[in-house]
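Lecture 7 notes: from sequence to structure.

We start with a single chain of 134 residues. Read the sequence below before looking at the structure.
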Amino acid sequence: MTTQESDLQALHKIHDDWIVYYNTGNVAALLALYDAESVIMPRGRQRISGVEAVRSYFERLFARGRLTMQSRLEKLEINGNWAIQYGLFTIRIKPHDGGPEEGDAGRYFILLRKHADGRWTVYQDLDQHTQDAL
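Now the structure, written as tokens:
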């Protein structure tokens, strides 16, 4: 297997694992996918920087209810030690308090960084609400 092939395989695994960890509310496993210098830019909210802020973001998010996400990866491209992933997502939130289920859909853009040991991590994570994702 070439380096390019193994990198693509690793990046697809990160995408798939991220969805599983998100859908199961596994904050520790999600954090393991993120870079120490990671930045999340969720739509309509302030930028979230660093591991502890990312941990807090996911803990607050999962405290709202049971989240279910689906993702359709549209593009995965590698350029040296950087890779991009982008696509469409839908999210359903079933509140713990029994309130009405909520939903959202949009596009995401992920920038990933390859480390000297060959490991890839999520470096920047951006999302936005868009009608074409519905």
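The domain at 3-133 is CATH 3.10.450.50 (Nuclear Transport Factor 2; Chain: A,). Keep this in mind for problem set 3.
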